[in-house]
Amino acid sequence: MKDSEYRSWADLPSDLTSSILIRLGVIDILENAQKVCRSWRRVCKDPSMWRKIDMGNLIPKIIYCKCDDLGIMCRHAVDRSQGGLVEIDIKYFCTDKLLNYIAHSSSNLRSLRLVECYTIKNDGFVDAVVKHPLLEYLEVTHLPLTGESLKIAGQSCPNLKTLKLNGSTWKRILINGFDNNALAIAESMPKLRHLELLGNSLTNTGLNAILDSCPHLEHLDIGMCFNIQFDEDLKKRCSTRIRVVKGPAI
């Protein structure tokens, strides 16, 4: 190939550049890619680049980046979506204030994943989730939500199909009692198809309530839910009603 046939990266069509850059993480785009040239910066500012914001795999970055800085970057990314954000994934650094900012800016959100965001309180969670009526996927890890908070989430998000509520059993017992979470889910989330309750304190009472009230359930994971006693009747009920069941002593 002759030298004259080589093309600059900056000369690539915008849609091709976008399909390449969208594979980068939020930090790489904001800190590096958009600074390469004007054409890349123009692509990086396109709202379509920010329909999905993934800040859930930042372990190596956190060493060099303060949580406040990550929060600023997340807000910047949300702003660039111009209301078009449909999916967001945050690990460690989300706060009540940031969650509320996302809620006010992203009425079209379909998927929310919060992993080990320990500073979020139940009130902060509720204030945000009621502003996401289109939510279909909700994942919360190591955040001890009360049954009332989950009930409000279910009532506010009638299209919720996937709930992943994973954490430590002992914390849930102290805060919720044994079956409060399960009973809230049963009461307010009838359209669930995929449910994970890893490390939850629910008993047979809570599980039966979910089976009674969630007729569309296809996938149930109750790993580390050691208060459930699987007798033959309960095993049969789960296996005949649900396509995939995972849990202790199944």
Explain how this protein is built:
This protein has 250 residues and is an alpha/beta fold. The chain has a single domain, classed as Ribonuclease Inhibitor (Leucine-rich repeat, LRR (right-handed beta-alpha superhelix), Alpha-Beta Horseshoe). It has helices spanning 14-21, 26-31, 38-44, 59-62, 67-81, 96-105, 122-129, 147-156, 169-176, 180-188, 204-213, 232-241, and strands at 52-55, 87-91, 111-115, 137-141, 162-166, 194-196, 219-221, 244-246. The longest helix is centred in the first third of the chain and has 15 residues, at 67-81. The model has no long low-confidence stretch (mean pLDDT 86). Pfam families: F-box-like. Residues 6-53 form the F-box domain.
Q: What general form does the structure show?
A: elongated
The CATH topology annotation reads as Leucine-rich repeat, LRR (right-handed beta-alpha superhelix)
What is the number of helices?
12
Q: End-to-end span in angstroms?
A: 62 Å
The proportion of residues forming helix, as a percent range, comes to: 40-55%
Organism: Camelina sativa (False flax)
Protein name: F-box/LRR-repeat protein 23
Pfam families: F-box-like (PF12937)
InterPro entries: F-box-like_dom_sf, F-box_dom, LRR_dom_sf
